Amino acid sequence: MTDSGKVDRTFFQRHVRPRLGHDREDVALGPKHGVDFGVVDVDGTALVCASDPVFVLPDLGWERAAWFAVHILLSDVAVSGVPPTHLSVCLNLPPDVTDDEFDALWETFDREARAFDVAFVTGHTARYPDGSFPTVGGATAMAVGDHDDVVRPDGARPGDRLLVTKGPAVESTGLLAARFEDALAGEPWHADALDRFHDASPVRDALVAAAAGPVTAMHDATERGLLNALHEMTDAAGVGVDVETDRVPVLPGVREACDFFDIDPWTASSEGTLLVACPPEGVDDVLGALASEGVPAADVGRVTDDERVVVDGEATAPPESDPLWPAMAAFAESLGESGVSTR
After folding, report:
1. What structural domains and CATH numbers belong to the chain?
2. What are the DSSP calls for 17-57, one per residue?
3. Per residue of the chain (343 residues), what is the pLDDT tens digit?
4. Distance CA 83, CA 8 (A)
């Protein structure tokens, strides 16, 4: 197991995969490493489900922190291509969270849920002595739709083209710029980096791409970044990819922020970056639909049958760590703060 963050494939296969409860026929898609969601068949209707931590970083400001938290929760369901419909949220908050702070947090949860026609169906809200930010609970997002509309996360096929939206390190750039907004205000690249914050959601990208289709698989680049996402997508489908980095979009402020914090953009968290496997005949339609929504995207390579992630002609290994959180903690400490979160 890695020291922090998601477990790797070896741990999952050894410790999780053999222990998945009763083998029910209504589970159309169950847990697999690198797969974002599961699917249950309910009398012929697909119920898409995905669970994640509730990640709230108050240092961003309550509105930003809540926006980011909600979009993380909705993203893994959205990459199914079926629009999210329901949320169940469990909040285990620290005792010092005030009613006014909770209102600021939950008002944004409510606003973003309404924007996607998502209803809260159940949950749990409490203050506990051992609760601490930024991880303050867990949630399950759901989507209800037709089985034929589900884009399977393990569906990439040799011969598909690989599309990438927004490029690497979008989340890392936006979070660092927002977390240290005052300290970085004098940096010439800071305004561009701060603009990346609201790019840190793949929800709209995924729904637009799926509707434009055909699309065979989608996956969002979260922990350990774009490079890890390539490995997860290919591992899930038993395929490989051949990618050219000079074709991958890089948004303004990303290179400068990564240089400033000395992090590798290809292995840094990038919630908001979407990988799309697409048959060649669908590429123009998908890219056109994304462009019409103002989402930068590009055809960056092809899906192969050799089960390797090849970048600029070189085979790669999955990254073992994510530089975002150590960089955030180190810079906070250089400012005399306590680390990733001051709450």
Report:
1. 18-149 (3.30.1330.10), 161-334 (3.90.650.10)
2. TT---S--TTEEE---TT---EEEEETTEEEEEEEEEEE--
3. 566 788 888 999 999 999 999 999 999 999 988 889 999 999 999 999 999 999 999 999 999 999 999 999 999 999 999 999 999 999 999 999 999 999 999 999 999 999 999 999 999 999 999 889 999 999 999 999 999 999 998 999 999 999 999 999 999 999 999 999 999 999 999 999 999 999 999 999 999 999 998 999 999 999 999 999 999 999 999 999 999 999 999 999 999 999 999 999 999 999 999 999 999 999 999 999 999 999 999 999 999 999 999 999 999 999 999 999 999 999 999 999 988 999 8
4. 28
Structure tokens at 10: 């070896």
Q: Where are the alpha helices (DSSP H) in the chain?
A: 9-11, 62-78, 99-115, 170-179, 181-184, 190-195, 203-212, 225-237, 254-261, 283-292, 324-334
pTM, full prediction: 0.96
- Which residues lie closer than 8 Å to 64 by C-beta, 6 or more apart? 178, 197
**Residue partners of 212: CB distance under 8 A and separation at least 6:** 282, 285, 286, 288, 289, 290
Token pair 């898609």 is found at 29
